[in-house]
């Protein structure tokens, strides 16, 4: 069993309130969950209206499949025009760790 995680540090565009921030972050999280069957949530910078951290995790029995899903998730977030992807942290864990 392998577990892969991604943590995205995002800079949001023209956002002036936490309500506007939620209206940008929620659709990204929902699309990740819907398209790739991953667990995703806003995991940090929740009190800052122009920054967001989204974390996701996926479990697989095959590292190739795991890497493919993580790559697709990263491309999806990077392609969103309303956010700037500042950094991505990727971790792979096995049941032997």
Total E-strand runs? 4
Spans where pLDDT lies below 50 across 5 or more residues: none
Shape: elongated
Chain-averaged pLDDT:
93
Q: Report how far the terminal alpha carbons are from each other.
A: 11 Å
Any idea what the radius of gyration is?
A: 14 Å
Described by strand count, sense and barrel closure, the largest sheet is: 4 strands, antiparallel
Kindly identify the CATH topology: Alpha-Beta Plaits
Order of strands, widest sheet: 2-3-1-4
Number of folding domains? 1
Q: Summarize the helix and strand pattern as letters.
A: EHEEHE
What is the annotated CATH architecture? 2-Layer Sandwich
The CATH class name reads Alpha Beta
Structural classification: alpha+beta
Can you offer a commentary on this structure?
With 97 residues, this protein is an alpha+beta fold. It has one domain: 2-Layer Sandwich (Alpha-Beta Plaits). It contains two helices and four strands. The protein has helices at 18-36, 63-78; strands at residues 2-12, 39-44, 51-60, 83-94. The protein has a four-stranded antiparallel beta sheet with strand order 2-3-1-4, with helices on one face. The longest helix is centred in the first third of the chain and has 19 residues, at 18-36.
């Amino acid at each position: 069993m392998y577990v892969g995680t991604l943590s995205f540090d995002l800079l949001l565009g023209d956002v002036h309130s936490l309500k506007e921030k939620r209206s940008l972050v929620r659709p990204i999280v929902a699309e990740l969950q819907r398209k790739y069957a991953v667990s995703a949530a806003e995991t940090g910078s929740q009190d800052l209206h122009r920054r967001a951290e989204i974390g996701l995790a996926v479990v697989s029995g095959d590292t190739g499949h795991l890497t493919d899903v993580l790559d697709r998730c990263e491309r999806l977030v990077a392609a969103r025009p309303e956010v700037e992807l500042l950094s991505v942290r990727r971790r792979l864990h096995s049941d032997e760790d």
